[in-house]
Amino acid sequence: xxxxxxxxxxxxxxxxxxxxxxxxxxxxxxxxxxxxxxxxxxxxxxxxxxxxxxxxxxxxxxxxxxxxxxxxxxxxxxxxxxxxxxxxxxxxxxxxxxxxxxxxxxxxxxxxxxxxxxxxxxxxxxxxxxxxxxxxxxxxxxxxxxxxxxxxxxxxxxxxxxxxxxxxxxxxxxxxxxxxxxxxxxxxxxxxxxxxxxxxxxxxxxxxxxxxxxxxxxxxxxxxxxxxxxxxxxxxxxxxxxxxxx
Length: 246
Description:
CATH topology: Spore Coat Polysaccharide Biosynthesis Protein SpsA, Chain A
Order of helices and strands: EHEEEHEEEEHEEHHHEEH
Shape: globular
Helix content: 25-40%
Number of helices: 7
Strand content: 15-25%
CATH superfamily: Spore Coat Polysaccharide Biosynthesis Protein SpsA, Chain A
Distance between the termini: 44 Å
Structural class: alpha/beta
CATH class: Alpha Beta
Number of strands: 12
Radius of gyration: 18 Å
């Protein structure tokens, strides 16, 4: 099974990315290539000396709103990935236990979790842009955890469905790349995926833990977010067999 792992990063997250890459080296197997997108303007400050095996770095133009731009790159990841499957990760996602990506996809169907809108809290904000993209009501929120995986053919089909995707995303006030991808897959390629309602789902650990840089004390996070930041840092240190300093 041919799987590429895809990460788009930028300068502010490079310190997190270097940790994430080390957790990939230590704990992740079963992928063909790690596709890493770095802004051209940050090329000179990105350290390439200790990357995981089979890492392919692409230096890309990164103009405009960075939050929207990285979503555009994810929705057009097929331009950089030529594997059957594309799994998305982020600079702040750390793989703290061994995982073989070949074991993640069952019967050639990546699993996508979904939850009714009235149960997703603040994530209700993704409903309007998703429905605008798919041009009809969307019943569920489908960005329920990290490391979402899609058939490359889905991204190719989206580029044909909406040739002006860059203009649409970059002109948006709000966008949700994975809700857009999953809503399209649900409508047009339903049989290619395993769809699981979280209301009937038995919890399994995520492939990676996410550490948000804005949850640190330096970023002025609340005490609640700070405690979560510390807990996740402890998980990362344990990944490398290091005890959390007292």
